[in-house]
Amino acid sequence: MQFRSIIRIVGLLLALFSVSMLAPALVALIYRDGAGVSFVTTFFFLFACGAICWWPNRRHKHELKARDGFLIVVLFWTVIGSAGSIPFLLSDNPNVSVTDAFFESFSALTTTGATVIVGLDDLPKAILFYRQFLQWFGGMGIIVLAVAILPVLGIGGMQLYRAEIPGPVKDSKMTPRIAETAKALWYIYLSLTIACALAFWLAGMTPFDAIGHSFSTIAIGGFSTHDTSMGYFDSYAINMITVIFLLISACNYSLHFAAFASGGIHPRYYWKDPEFRAFIFIQLLLFIVCFLVLLNHLTYNSVYDAFDQALFQTVSISTTAGFTTTGFSDWPLFLPVLLLFSSFIGGCAGSTGGGMKVIRVLLLTLQGARELKRLVHPRAVYTIKVGGTALSQRVVDAVWGFFSAYALVFVVCMLALIATGMEELSAFSAVAATLNNLGPGLGDVALHFGDVNEKAKWVLIVSMLFGRLEIFTLLILLTPTFWRS
């Protein structure tokens, strides 16, 4: 294990993260809200910490192995999540505890969107911007950004890329060099953010709200600058824009790259992808069910309102964004539970969405169908094909292993929450909301997590990290095999 090289890289990345504090400091200067001091102080502190880690180890530039890459990713998200809590601690508004500061920071960086802060409309603009900006950073993975713009790292970068980019197939690269791949991903990410911000602004948002909500929409984070989330704007146009960009962001970014690589939009790249087709089918099915149930229960006064709310909440919850326009937890109980379970599927692999990812659920479904066929014809040989390509048994085994680990982490976290005194429905939905990086839950966590006890919040922080790092990246560090030389 190249510990000194790892410390050097983490120091560089921490110094890079410190620069992000200047953006909310600038917002504080523009709006004169008095919150800039905490961000400037944090910038100097984190930059100094990064320099202390980098300087003694600056000459250690050994090639990293896969194990080193996993350790860097976990260390980085843990360190950055902790560092991100400092502005919340130094700020007078909001006045939060250490636990709440860590919870808010990790929730933002992991794009979970679960908040412990009430009274968002009264917060300084700089703090509001910072929360949104953290989500935008975490959405694509700040390590991919660092690999793209910091060639001084002195490594090929593939180890970091494999550990950071979500999805069951992590070895594929869209361009020959990993730095070029990371740059391509971020160009797409930035372009979508700008387009989303412009659309929100044209639909009636203020420039501040448009930029802030474009950050959390493209990151599929769910943070808002208002307590009532998207319901604050009460706009059909804004709801539809949110739905469109959430669906785009929940797709595999390699599909976006392929579609735009030749200089034009080619929808066939999307439709040829079996995961994309499965994703669209799931979205349509969920929307139809929600729409019909709302109509049957006369939940809204008009068909159009039912259509708008069903479409928005279906896409928002199932893609793990967690935006709300209404108290969807007050809908007929079947619908909130259905949408909560849909968040376990989440977005496509290689997207900014959470959950287990559509491709894994698709493979599990195909594997289940194969086992049913084997019961009827025990001696027959069946292969699992995705997009016309037969998958090896190793891939199928890996998906089953991921599903088993996911279920195990979920059960352990839920039992831990119940042990802290949380009631069963709230514990179940809280773990679902954090492990799937969703945000809102049911019961006591339907609106916010401010009333959750402190021990439970630390459990949920760990749950967020497991969800963001796709279970194995964090779980592998807990195995004795990982630490053996």
From TrEMBL:
The chain crosses the membrane at residues 12-31, 37-57, 69-90, 133-163, 184-203, 236-255, 276-295, 333-353, 398-419, 458-483. The keyword Cell inner membrane applies. It is found in: Cell inner membrane. Keywords: Cell inner membrane, Cell membrane, Ion transport, Membrane, Potassium, Potassium transport, Transmembrane, Transmembrane helix, Transport. It is a multi-pass membrane protein. InterPro entries: Cat_transpt, TrkH. It holds the Pfam family TrkH. Its main location: membrane. The keyword Calcium does not apply. Belongs to the TrkH potassium transport family. NCBIfam families: 2a38. Low-affinity potassium transport system. Interacts with Trk system potassium uptake protein TrkA. This is Trk system potassium uptake protein. The lineage of its organism: Bacteria, Pseudomonadati, Pseudomonadota, Gammaproteobacteria, Vibrionales. The gene is trkH.
